[in-house]
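Tokens help. One example:
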Amino acid sequence: MESTKTIQLKITDIDSDLVETMQKYSDGMNYVSEIVFQNGKVIPAMKLQKMVYPYLREKIGLKSQVSCNIPRQVAGSYKTLLEQIKCKKTKWQKLQYTPSSMTLSYKRDYTITEDSVSITTFSSGRKTYNIQNYDYAKEYFKEPWKFTASKVTKHDDGDYYFHLTVSQKIEEPAIEEASNFMGVDVGINYLAVASTTDKKCKFFAGGEIKNQRNIYSKMRARLQSKGTLSAKRVLKHLTGKEQRFMKDVNHCISKSIIKFAVQEKVSIIGLEDLTNIRDTTNVRKKQRYLHNSWAFRQLQGFIEYKAKQVGVLVEYVDPAYTSQTCNRCNHISKNNRKGLRFHCEACGFEMNADLNGARNIEHRTRDFRYIVESQGCLSTIHTDNLS
């Protein structure tokens, strides 16, 4: 299987040539977006490329590879929009692009060393820019890692970064030989609870983190009530600070989960398919902010790519009733769970509610192996469906 990772490297000597190139790139994106919007439906990437390639090359003056990247990227964005329309989350609309991101193909559009990146610019051809590298990132410049399509991105603070994407092939374990599975239940009170086939478990408490996020929430409410220009500036900074805090927490938790999985010799980690989770789950009013803003999917994504790096598979399972099902007798009832306590009204079994959920996820993940053995096929639920 393929393991990928993206490293953010700051470009320290940005110039007008690179800024102009990104502007031309966004001009091309908006031109192609207009074509798709006027068509009224998604146009397949290859067909779209044939339609817009001459204009991108001759009128805007973009390079050949970039003129191929743009229609693929726009087609993908409209495909995502179509999925959101099907879920009644939005309506057909024209997508607008700003000059804040540009996708580049390795060798054709960029080459890179540990200290610099060479990028094909619009007016001046190939130009070399210095990058700020980090000790942890230097290992990805060596075998078996290989460079793939990457991005130049302008961050909210105005600085430009090169988002280098690398990949490597890792031997995929045979599912039929898997004997130890792990289910991971993500939530608010416990950010994650992991349980293995042999009942080993690990809790990742969220109390202090929840308190910190409540502090952010109250600060945000005070700033919003003021409504002054300075308050809005502070509010923007606070939002970015909270997002970085959440991302760091998710990285730490996912790292610990994978360490636990390796320690227990887990072959497959089971996660719930949380697509549309915010639309289908009811929570108490006091917890609505925490539930709607917590990056559950981000945590799962971190678990997934870290699992790939150590050769552990990840499978997404149906989340229906995992919190209401007794993992001992399989009785399902809304009354089984009350807060952090799970008490089965049928057999009287009691345990922590999140641990019960994790064991149900592990059980469904284990069932996946038997489906593969009996039918000779893999599940249709994969991360491509969880964007």
In short: Residues 2-169 form one domain. Residues 285-293, 379-387 have pLDDT under 50 and may be disordered. The longest strand covers residues 2-11.
